[in-house]
What does this fold into?
Amino acid sequence: MKKFWTASLLLLATLALAACGKLSFNDTSTTSSGTKTESYQTTGTVNDALYQGVIKNGRYQISSARGLTIQQNTQGGNNFNVKSMETGLTNLAQKQFSTSKYVFQEGQLITTATAKSWLARKTDKNADGLNPEDNGQEDADKRAPMYLQSLVEQDFMTQDGSNLKLGGIAIALALNEYDYYQKVKYGATYTTTIDQTKLAEEGKQIAAKVVARLRKMDGVSADIPIIVGLYRNAARDSLVGGVFFAEATAASGDSLGSWTNIDQQNEVLPVIDNKKPINSTVATDFNSFTTQIENFFPTLAGVTAQTHYENGALTGMNITINTQFYGETEIESFTQYVGTTASKYLPSGAKIEITVQATQGIQAFLARESGAKDFTTHVFGSY
Amino acid sequence: MKKFWTASLLLLATLALAACGKLSFNDTSTTSSGTKTESYQTTGTVNDALYQGVIKNGRYQISSARGLTIQQNTQGGNNFNVKSMETGLTNLAQKQFSTSKYVFQEGQLITTATAKSWLARKTDKNADGLNPEDNGQEDADKRAPMYLQSLVEQDFMTQDGSNLKLGGIAIALALNEYDYYQKVKYGATYTTTIDQTKLAEEGKQIAAKVVARLRKMDGVSADIPIIVGLYRNAARDSLVGGVFFAEATAASGDSLGSWTNIDQQNEVLPVIDNKKPINSTVATDFNSFTTQIENFFPTLAGVTAQTHYENGALTGMNITINTQFYGETEIESFTQYVGTTASKYLPSGAKIEITVQATQGIQAFLARESGAKDFTTHVFGSY
It folds into this structure.
């Protein structure tokens, strides 16, 4: 019923490291007694394109500031932003920190309290606030908007004898193109739209401050590279996340080096309200695909796609097909049909993922890697 | 972020066939005028292990009796039975009808009205009823139970010039080990438990009648093989479907040939109520895996598995891990960890599928084919 797949598996390269509590960047379980023996492991790897993750005392090291990011972001943004920012940051980091040499650890330097203070406005009581002081104005164009919505820290560890040590840091700063605010608590929501040039300017200034502060933290030596990516949140009703638009690296010290622009765009297909699509060929191809698919079954509830462009070219497409199928054989036939139709109509070259959903959950999944010709398929079965 | 996969794709082997309405097994759009030109296609194939499906006038041919099967089964059984019976029947059929020579079509011979009459009790008004006449008794041990709960028909087509013709039929008869009934409408539900020997006996008699009736239908020539599989429904609160326990083939004519026993067992792990597992090594392996996984994250909601045994040996395992993850990087690390842990603890040889679920839907997916050493992984991303 399923494809034969091939995969290379580096079997259980788990490092059972006995650490001595020296790693001060890990603030959750370091004891000051110096006698406790901690046990580090990594997740091992089944996929070379993914980092191994750090396991400490049998548990995965969750980022302490993570919950806050979410909380902040649900207020002002949407969950697509969170996912896409995290994935995007890991992608930026991979260019400098290879998955074979570095082990991934959720950010451990910036605590919840620190993140909370940084993300707030600067006030007399909160000198560390990275958002501007309130200027007392309430008008969308006159008030001082919140530029920085959330941040994500990712740590990249290298092996150091029997320990893991911090080898690199990646920081994403999520900036608001649309800053949503209330004039009265629980009141109506207003929006300050921030010009992209202004947003980049502010983001770069915030980035410089963040790097200087990180460099002063325990465990961050002067020569650990700090990558900073500036991320522009999508509007809160968007069905796709935002994009990174600039990055810089502080190879050592506080200097961030020069900024590199990142040209990314996301779009949801089909486009609505007669908007012009980013690429009309892609949009037309997608419509042809959709028409073919929708003819197949009377009970199809809809086909949508998230598309991702880099430097103007389509690099990825996540398609979701909502169905009301009943039968396993119906799903199998449909999966075959989707695969052949996708090969025929969808743009070649870009990475494509297609999920077939029903109310009971995912029914089938098809994927084609960037540059590959063939779709792999999986129909989710049940005994 | 994902594995590189290989897949063989038979590109769009769609047969654009112009039929003349001769195929009487297709009762939905055959016109009697003889002038209408119908267009047949097949789904094409992206996976050699799956059949191509028939598309007629751009639409997939749904089985007319399909809805009824579902309806009947939700009353007395559960949705796992439906899925597992359909998949199981296709698996039985594949042994005789190869996916390269035959095209799959949802059953078109048995109409809704026919299925309804067959599945009901035999009465003066319903001579075709395959379930016994009501004997007026209400006691679980004295009443005449409903043996036949539902049925599934699958048609296997071959190419015949520019047409498709019926090349084989597979029928699954879903029989009740537990027959649920009400003494009063909307009243309490009682259960008649049917002895497996008795159930097999009744099932075989029903099968003989079904084959004789099918053989008389238009379009079913004397030499078309009819496979019949006897399926035993799982109890309605089961988290896994039932199994096939016998099969026979009427190669030609009404004679069903000899019955072959099928030794299949399904089980949900972990076993509850101190029940003895089918295979204690498998159960222990699964528990070790679960313990490792549950340690990893504080927010793990549970790990369960459907297991499938054939001839006493574990052949498949569908594991579902319920999580409350937030972050994409957390899911990536977890996926790596699940993959390495599965390789270490789970039984080798059997086909294994692992889905990582959150309330938002599927987050990641891991699979290992039967006999393969390596897991393929997919983390569902978002732009």
Observations:
- Chain A is about 25% helix and 30% strand.
- Residues 196-215 of chain A form the longest helix (20 residues).
